[in-house]
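Reopening: DNA primase/polymerase bifunctional N-terminal domain-containing protein still failing for me.
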Amino acid sequence: MVLSEPEGNNGGNLDAALGYAADGMLVLPVHSVKDGRCSCERIRGPKEHHCRSPGKHPLTLNGLRDASAVKRVVRQWWKDNPHANVAIQTGRSSDLLVVDLDTKRSANGVEQFEALFGSVKEIGCPLVRTGSGGLHLLFSYPSEKKLSSCQGIHGLQIDLRAQDGYVLVPPSANLDGSYRLEEGTFESRGEVPVEILQWILSDANSRDRQRTPQQFEIDPTNERKTLHVISKISKRFIESRDEWMRVCAAAKYEAPSDDVFDAIDQLSSKSEVGNYRGTDDVRRTWDSFNRQTQFDGETTTLGTLISYAKQSGWDPKSDPVWLAMRPQEEVNPASDEIRFYTGPELAKLDTSVAWLVEKVLVAGQPVLQAGPKKSLKTNTLIDLVCSLGSGTPFLGRFEVPEKRRAALMSSESGASTIQETANRIAKAKGFSGVGEIENVLFAFETPLISTAKECEKIHEIIESYRLDVLAIDPTYLTFVIGDSGKNIFQMGQILSPLSRIGQSTGCTIILSHHSRKGVGRDGEPLDLGDESYSGFSEWARQWLYINRREPYDESSPGSHKLWLRYGGSAGHAGLHGIDIEESDPFAESGRQWRLSVSSASEIISSRQRQNEQTNREKTDATIRRRLSQVFEVVKGLPAGETKAVIAAKAGFSHGITDKCLYELERQQLIEVTEVSKSGRQYPGWKLVESDNSDSTRTVSGQSASISQSDNNSLL
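Support: Ran it again with your exact input. Result attached.
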């Protein structure tokens, strides 16, 4: 990818980010510089200075862990933050290793590097000039090596950006200036020269390099929370050096910044029993921990600090500063107190079921729709929301007791397809078009749901449009799942906010999802667990599973024979066959929406009848073929011949030949005769003498005209 350098061009930042993502590199939005300050717009503590990493730290909640090459995700980031700088995650995931030559500090990293390896331009790697005037040397990541990001290789002003790191890339800019591509392209990066790689490894192997605070871009929210909780810990509750070290490890894990270190040092100096030995001792202890440190077998986190603060008398529920910093996952800010019900209270609760669709869907419980491609998932959702909005039967069969305000957010089909389909479906329900159904809403994009903040958008949509039902299609363009899809517990954390939103608003949320590859190819109904990824069937309290009864036929694209399996925790369940005819899109009358719904028993009985008919036809064909083959052999032997000779010429066993001869004799096409061989007489068969020509003689091989025992023996 060759980059232009549109400094200050926000559209250029998005275009660049999409270009990097298209090349398979993981992209991350980073704060920009605004009016000489970082866009995070925060003043850190009493020192009253600006952000320590202006225009360099991530915008997203989870920092580097959010890096993505999914174009839809990237577009959404820059739609929400058009001025964001662009960063790329380094390491194996992006096939990118960066040697960072710093010129901002006391020594000049470029001069130091060239003293060792000669001119950087003669190395032949792509070069990026940083805002401060330094250089980034770009290489492919050495797959056989495991390199961690580190600073000050061999004590020089040369850093390494490898695993667990990232770099700003053109056309980003910070307080020092803009990043620009000076030599080559990102695509032209090659392997690290052997002498440079060995030089890096010789330092990495010489000592256990702990990550410094600068190598972790710290989440501002985590840092503020950590500082606030530390300020609430009383020195009286740090009763031993072990407890002091536990607090130190927890703070380092959450936010390894200079300000957090200062707060720990200040807390340590107050402690009378923590064996405080001065700032140098605190620094040595601090540096001994990294973000994977376990203390006494446990990983110390913010929860550790909160525990000590509570022991000190701090009540987080009554602390307005803390409440303002609470994470966004409390979209439905439920009380921290769990409500228990006594038996009499439980008996009085109104838990009656309200039907959205009679005996198919219950109001207020999350729904999972799943099926393979070409199973009309989106079309059936359009039918559903139109039915709910108009109070007409779902799929022309299932009654809707009352009108509901229903919305469909679909980012896969596009506005034109949804409009055309909705009009056809509305006409099938007796309207002139979807324009006559006021209670139904459509959107042609879906939100990204990877954080609680995105779930808040769902909450706002439901409240703003007063929705009773919200269908989101499809799941794979809505959820940023990654490896979480393999873990039911992680998926529970992603999906549970939707359940809470549904409970708090009373809105029924429907997710449309794909089934696993290969599932349903046998034309049988889908069942719970056939959907992709973990956790979805556990999350759903009711379901609509769709599968094709017959494979999709490109020669007849408007004809669909489907299974619809539905059910839920309210005890309802059902299985039906749905036949949908949409007609030829090029027909003069246009496409339509004709439905026929059958019970599963009707479908199964019809299948059995079809199978029996098919088997009969196969049986008849086999019998006719064998009878005709034996008949032709006999016809070719006008003098007659023995069964053994006839069997050999026909290629059948004696048993089958015997039955064929019997049946042909019964049909008066052949007759028994005597065959003379070597002066001896043997029983044989020959063609019946007839006035008709042989060509008019036909063999009857219908299984219905032959007894069952003879029928079986002829097969």
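The first strand starts at residue 27 and ends at 30. If you still see a failure, please send the error message rather than a screenshot.
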